[in-house]
Design a protein that fits this description.
Distance between the termini: 50 Å
Structural class: alpha+beta
Number of helices: 11
Largest sheet: 6 strands, antiparallel
Number of strands: 28
Number of domains: 3
């Protein structure tokens, strides 16, 4: 029996803004540990499955995901690139099709990348139970034993016990996020679990049930894969065909309809880390029940979560609040309102603020850049190029650039010239000149770029050659 782990990395994590943003969502961040959440997800499942994972992520995150997999020693069988999010039903169908290329009866373990699980040993035992049941034809979802009347999760009402599998139940129904009164009734009555979004199924069983209940999704997934581009470790899904697939969860599309749905209630110390109050509950607290990260000084402060990046954050005489201070944004919220951060971010998007999308430090496949000053007709950036990194051969139609190397060694292409710049050396790139910056050394290259011109937007760029597969100008 081949067991293929598939890790879903499509969420944007808006409730953890401003730490999590569209360009660098929560699954690609580390919260109180050495590894990011997607790295933890891969490391957590690997002892049971013994197969390299398939990762499904946004095309915009492809290089970040690939780098994080390399950094944690994982070697994905494939990194599948979605042109846009279409929810979990299309992702499950794509996962099943890819797993069936390995083994038509492969068991797929479909896991979100943004969960925290405290009891790893119990998770492994539960996963082994689910794999056995899936091998015998059940589509299994993990139901989390509720500890509180939580209103931020959907619920699963369990049906009859399945005699051949201890602890496994049929699914009676899925329930949307309830109000507080209804959630309390579920907790008192028993037989309800939080919907974890984790699924285990055999590929051929999934196809049978999709064909029976939502054949359009399976057909769309097959057509998408048939026309997708396979480039080394990446599978770039065909954009036009993928966007035609219904945007729907596997719960609605299949699990509420199929007779093969089963729930395995478990208590594994699970959290979807969906808010800062959830992070506060998970992490180690000081004597005043506070969780502090970074440079924080507080007096007469209790029950609070504070994350301060690159600055001193001070508090006095407050309780049960969240303060998140980043380079370019500060969030202050009552801990009881952290589920509302999503609506706050939606408001920022509506007024066309950039902060919901990008951090002050912008990630690129070759390194990072950060704007440190800007004004009328000029912009100053700090550029960091990783060892082996190379920017595209490019030109700008409306701006000139001046480069100063402050650390490392840069190989510069400027028009027909190719030369090396070392620390404290500089060069000028005139408007319209083809140019490239490379770090051929083994240490990080750091430089200051001063832009000047009538227009300094990031879209003033023509690429002629790119090592990372980004779009280039046609000859």
């Amino acid at each position: 029996m081949r067991v293929i782990p598939v890790i879903l990395s499509g969420g944007s994590g808006t409730r953890l803004w401003p730490l999590s943003r569209a360009a660098l969502p929560k699954q690609l961040l580390a919260f109180g540990g050495e590894h990011t959440m997607i790295q933890e997800a891969v490391r957590r499942v690997s002892p049971v499955t013994a197969e390299e994972p398939i990762i499904i992520c946004s095309d915009a995150h492809r290089f970040l995901v690939a780098q994080q997999m390399q950094d944690c020693g994982a070697h994905p069988r494939a990194i599948v690139l979605e042109p846009e999010g279409r929810n979990t039903a299309p992702a499950a169908a794509i996962a099943g099709l890819l797993a069936s290329e390995i083994d038509p009866e492969a068991v797929v373990v479909l896991l979100p990348s943004d969960h925290r699980i405290a009891d790893i040993a119990k998770f492994h035992l539960t996963l082994q139970q689910a794999i056995l049941a899936a091998h015998r034809g059940w589509i299994v979802t993990f139901g989390i034993t509720p500890a509180t009347p939580e209103t931020g999760y959907g619920y699963i009402e369990q049906g009859k016990p399945i005699e051949a599998h201890a602890g496994l139940h049929t699914v009676h129904r899925f329930v949307e996020k309830p109000d507080a009164k209804t959630a309390g009734e579920y907790l008192a009555k028993g037989g309800y679990s939080w919907n974890s979004g984790m699924f285990v199924f055999r590929a051929d069983v999934l196809f049978e049930e999709l064909e029976r209940h939502c054949p359009d999704i399976l057909k769309g997934a097959r057509e998408t894969l048939d026309h997708s581009q396979r480039e080394q470790e990446f599978i770039r899904l065909d954009e036009a065909r993928f966007k035609k697939i219904r945007n729907i969860s596997i719960d609605y599309a299949l699990m509420e309809k199929t007779d093969s749905a089963a729930v395995l209630p478990c208590d594994i110390g699970w959290s979807d880390v969906g808010s800062f109050s959830a992070l506060w509950a998970l992490e180690t607290k000081n004597a005043d029940q506070n969780v502090f990260h970074g440079d924080v000084y507080a007096r007469e402060t209790t029950g609070s979560y504070v994350h301060s990046k690159n600055m001193l954050t001070t508090l006095v005489g407050v309780k049960d609040i969240v303060v998140i201070a980043t380079d370019d944004a500060v969030l202050v919220a009552n801990k009881s309102h952290t589920q509302d951060v999503k609506e706050l971010v939606d408001g920022l998007k509506a007024v066309k603020r950039n902060e919901p999308f990008d951090h002050a430090v912008i990630q690129r496949p070759w390194g990072t850049y950060q704007t440190v000053d800007a004004g009328q007709g000029y912009q100053v950036k700090r550029i960091v190029v990783n060892p082996g990194g190379r920017l595209s051969l490019q030109s700008h139609g409306k701006r000139a650039e001046h480069w100063v190397v402050v650390q490392g060694e840069a190989r510069v292409t400027r028009g027909d010239e190719v030369f090396v710049l070392r620390e404290n050396q500089s060069t000028h790139i005139p408007v319209g000149t083809k140019h490239r910056l490379e770090n051929l050394g083994s240490t990080t290259l750091c430089m200051i770029e001063v832009q000047s011109g009538l227009y300094l937007g990031e879209d003033d760029i023509v690429r002629f050659d790119d090592a990372y597969g980004r779009e280039t100008a046609k000859p």
